[in-house]
What does this fold into?
Amino acid sequence: MTSPRILVVDDEADLRELLDITLVRMGLDVDCAATLGQARALWAANEYALVLTDMRLPDGLGLELVRDVAASGKGTPIAVVTAYGSADNAVVALKAGAFDYVSKPVVLDDLRVMVRSALRVSHPGPDLSAAGAATPSRLIGDSAAMQALRAQIGRLARSMAPIAITGESGSGKELAAREIHAQSARAARPFIAVNCGAIPEALMEAEFFGYRKGAFTGAADERDGFFQAANGGTLMLDEVADLPLAMQVKLLRAIQERRVRKIGATAEEPVDVRIISATHQDLAHCVETGKFRQDLFYRLNVIELGLPPLRERLSDLGVLTAAILTRLAAAGAGQKAALGAGVLETLCAYSFPGNVRELENVLERALAFANDGVIEVADLSLKSARAAEPISSTAAAAAAAVALAAPAPGPSAGAPVSGPAALPNSLPEYLEQVERDIILRALAQTQFNRTQAAQLLGISFRQLRYQMQKLGIQEPEQS
It folds into this structure.
């Protein structure tokens, strides 16, 4: 069996020799090139398991070679060597199709980790290949949108580039992240999902990076953080827009340097983690409003993966419903329920603002009311007011704001308005206040029963809990 062959492209003879010696000691065959022209000639004449190129070459840019390799269709991973502090160049290369990058001065341990990851992509083991082929996709649906999504995930799984998953609440962002991990060369290593909005700010650094014994009061033992737990695998940062700015700075450094320092430690330790972030918020807008750092946004948003809402793929309702009912039957050790006449048509006429999560909730509730295991239309308990085409939360708040700001009808309510209505000084702050008032009104009406309040407002319990956290609404203490 022949050893994998690596193509090293760099105009610095000393660095080229260092890379050559390091890779040969790893049991690999190496070809070296000093220019872009030499690299293209070797690439055309040989098959490589990995290409490693400098970004600046005497007769061109390594980025050109990245595009050539990515466009060849061979699936060969290519990594770039960037100058220290040139994070922007690394992001550009990743967007162009690079598998990964290493920074100058090259740390040989980091280089070896990257090479092993690349070889797992180009030469997957038989167990990994068989597992990937046999495992059905977690993303169910035969619509064109889902077929395109699964194809895109198949391509993204081969890269180390950070991915930002966007989509409405309940659309399956964590499922998509798990699918990327399962199809990647990291499938056998840990997948760690973290809800950034659920961690108290005071504990964030300890949770992400870990701590040494005695680092603070209560630190009775040494503990690893999320980065160490996901080492070699994938770390998913769910609701990343909820990270406070102070933590964003520390996270940016950890991602750029690929090293973390535990609280109480004096030295950093390397971590090999692929970052997948997810949010239902518009991160670009968060950057504009100063809630999210621009440099971290560029680092996380190298590749954006958008998930379609359920209302845009209603043709998948049949297979989704069948899969959910099968799972519910397995969880309850009962027989799979059947759908009565007109149930699927009724579901197709509904907009599902809560997406697949709401569909699961509707079916689980309907199953509890079903007679003889047959779900009828009446069992769905769909609110007709919510079956209309959904509007965004901002538009809804704006509509509510207009309604609240409208003058109360009086003796002259029918008279024309004599002048323009006063406008708020800050629309976002005004809408937040309106949203806070509406939520507080619903909570007061239900004696702070959040489940009933969420139903009253036509949103999911998780959406209500998130909005309460965002707006600083707390349940009153019991006397």
User: Anything to note?
Assistant: The domain at 310-386 is CATH 1.10.8.60 (Helicase, Ruva Protein; domain 3).
